[in-house]
Design brief:
This protein is of the alpha+beta class and 129 residues long. It has one domain. It has helices spanning 4-63, 68-81; strands spanning 89-95, 98-110, 115-126. β2 (98-110) and β3 (115-126) form a beta hairpin. It is elongated, with a radius of gyration of 27 Å. The chain starts with a helix and ends with a strand.
């Protein structure tokens, strides 16, 4: 009769390495996920803050009937404040009381071996009410 204990030990030995590999794979995936979040979240939050600031500036400009050049200057100032790239583009136009602004730029997100060019377009329209 074969010794059952020896058979169990022989079959269980290769599986120990497999569980370590799964753990290391899970650990690498978790580290990569944390790294991606740490890189993308600040850029995303900056984009959101610029969106909110542009909405406030355009709303104020539309309701107070400010000129397009004043509005453009305020948007450029906010862009510098939030660290947007220097080559950002601000387009503003007015149709009656309605004012529309579009801010476009390319945010560079750096990885160890690659730089992602993230095109961003912020479009804000206020009816002037």
């Amino acid at each position: 009769m074969p010794d059952l204990r020896k058979t169990v030990l022989r079959k269980g030995a290769p599986e120990l390495g497999a569980s370590r590999f799964s753990f290391l794979l899970l650990l690498a995936f978790t580290a990569a996920s944390v790294y991606l979040v740490a890189v993308f979240v600040p850029a995303y939050m900056s984009n959101q803050r610029m969106q909110e600031a542009a909405e406030l500036i355009v709303h104020r400009a539309a309701t107070q009937n400010l000129s397009e050049s004043d509005t453009r200057a305020q948007l450029h100032e906010k862009a510098r404040e939030f660290g947007l790239p220097e080559d950002h583009n601000v387009d503003i136009w007015r149709e009656g009381k309605t004012m529309t602004a579009r801010v476009t730029y390319t945010r560079l997100v750096s990885f160890p071996f690659y730089t992602y060019k993230w095109p961003v377009e912020i479009r804000v329209k206020d009816l002037g009410f």
